[in-house]
Specification:
Oligomer: single chain
Structural class: mainly alpha
Helix content: over 70%
Distance between the termini: 47 Å
Shape: globular
Number of strands: 0
Keywords: Membrane, Transmembrane, Transmembrane helix
Largest sheet: none
Protein name: DoxX family protein
Organism: Flavobacterium gilvum
Radius of gyration: 17 Å
Number of helices: 6
Length: about 130
Amino acid sequence: MKTATFFIRTIIGLLLISMSIAYFFNLMPELESTENFKAFHVGLISSVYLMPLIKTIVLLCGVSYLFGQYVVLTNIVILPVSTNILFIDFFLNPNGLPLAIFIFLGNLFLIYAHWKSYKSLFTRKSVMHFD
């Protein structure tokens, strides 16, 4: 299990870092896509702050995965991003779907691998009363 966790964490970390660097340095060509995806992409770019914010979070999470630091926190931070990547690719850009599925399932696997750290989030505790 430790070997699989290390392997998945490292591969996802490298993918996230490479996607972020490619965005910040304009290293990737424009994607061929449908009209709906183009409209969605233009909306993201038009917001000015959203794509740089997302790519910065993705870069920080990739570095965290690569170095194995704060992985438990990183799993939770990157989950909404990987979920959105999966849905965007499923509904608007099927060309990126295999990579999106790998990142999403890898994220779920890493959450499963660190489940002991998340268990307390799902247990019912008595409400604290402050008198």
